[in-house]
Design goal:
The structure is a homodimer. By secondary structure, the first copy, chain A, is an alpha/beta fold. In chain A, 45% of the residues lie in helices and 16% in strands. An eight-stranded parallel beta barrel of chain A has the order 1-2-3-4-5-8-9-10, surrounded by six helices. Chain A has a two-stranded antiparallel ribbon with strand order 6-7.
């Protein structure tokens, strides 16, 4: 099944655009879990258990797993296996390298870890992204307008006679590269007006991954309104820290669910 | 010791600007090694054994290791430990993410694997690079002008009134961000005229990592001439496939040494 079909099926089933980012961090999980041998996996399991009926997908940022070495590979593998198959998973690595090397990254996310989607960095151009695009049923979210303050350093530079911001050029390229209908774009909630332009340039078909609500302070109302396509779909609102670390007692999962539920409902208010 | 000191010490000791890229690939190593349990590590060991007196540093592209899962982490750890301490190692990951996440990537390359340097992608701007720059004695090679054909997609876009190519803007930023004297830049051998401009913009202090000779067909003479600083140093000419896979018989290491020696000598001809 194509990613967008799988995604929009979950959007309908759970009536949700919410994506929970499983960015498990030893410095932030409830302290009682640190004493357990499998504390990080227990944390992920509990977060997944209390959110499966609230999300349209999960996102896993590879940095949090890779930095744990061997244990991280095991944790990532077990977490991927634990997530119910019907819920799509975005393995967020923001990779980008020359073709020969990018093939290995694509193999890693799609064949080794069996993710449904991934994120890639556009700076090196099309041939660095092609090995990912060869996976027809997956979705490749290309960084367009990221949510961090320094995004403006390069992404807002004005290009050419028409003084087009770089991120708009990238959005145009994503539309052009979407021949196999498996491209997505990353557009941060912290720049909602830019998000609006990206949706306009990119059309209805391309799903947008929208990080930056919650801790990063993005505007939720505008992000939802501008992010969705004309059917109120194809937008994924990601939140990680605000949900995962809502509370650090033994009842953390209860509070994470509350936070996820509240965000899901607020998102739906604006759809 | 600072990276550039360590690097230039090896440049002098081995009279070499050559960097061997240890991009071990199960599809390309000599077939007799595939039968061995520890074949990939044996391959790396032999390549290292025959090149320690020919290189100024090694580069390890993380994609080739990560895509092997658990085994890759083990192989990377063992390979890092096997390389003599005096030879600097660049762990090539081309990472880039929001600050909170980039901290984990920086921890991975510098604390977990104890690399001397890494590569990062500039698209997300300064705050995505800062967590790396906090490691004063390491070197952070920022992608500027990459060696692949599609590099032109974005890196050559003309920015602002002065119509400055994006990669030159990035070069200027690298110079600006080099407060701790621990920035480097990646500039491909396949665009030697651009390399020349980058060295001019970036000054003498910043080491350049120059991939793209060998299989990618970059111009060696120009890359060396334009890449080095006024003392004939601070340039690293990387070659991976042409050296590693020079031959796939049981005597592969002999041929790899020959290829490395020939490239080292040719580089020195142009210094």
């Amino acid at each position: 099944m194509r990613f967008t079909d799988k995604l929009n099926k979950m959007i309908e089933k759970n009536n949700s655009l919410l994506c929970v980012g499983l960015d498990v961090d030893t410095k932030k999980i409830p302290p009682h879990l640190l004493k357990k041998e499998d504390g990080l996996f227990t944390f992920n399991k509990k977060i997944i258990d209390v959110t499966t009926d609230l999300v349209c997908c999960y996102k896993i940022n590879m940095a949090f797993y890779e930095s744990l070495g061997q244990k991280g590979v095991e944790l990532l593998t077990k977490t991927m296996e634990y997530i119910p198959r019907e819920i799509p998973v975005i393995l967020d690595g923001k990779r980008g390298d020359i073709g020969n090397t990018a093939e290995h990254y694509a193999y890693e996310v799609f064949d080794l870890y069996k993710a449904d989607a991934t994120t890639v960095n556009p700076y090196m151009g099309l041939d660095s992204i092609k090995p990912f695009l060869n996976y027809r049923d997956k979705c490749i979210f290309i960084l367009c307008r990221t949510s961090n303050p320094s995004a403006v350093d390069f992404q807002n530079l004005l290009v050419g006679e028409k003084k087009t911001p770089l991120y708009e050029i990238v959005a145009g390229k994503i539309r052009e590269w979407n021949e196999k209908k498996n491209c997505g774009a990353v557009a941060g909630a912290t720049y909602p007006e830019d998000l609006k332009k990206i949706r306009f340039i990119i059309g209805d078909d391309v799903p947008l991954l929208i990080p930056g609500v919650g801790k990063q302070g993005g505007n939720l109302e505008k992000s939802v309104k501008y992010g969705v396509n004309s059917e109120g779909k194809n937008a994924i609102i990601n939140s990680s820290r605000s949900i995962l670390y809502a509370n650090n007692s033994e009842e953390f999962a209860f509070f994470s669910r509350k936070a996820a539920e509240a965000l899901k409902d607020e998102i739906n208010k604006y759809r």
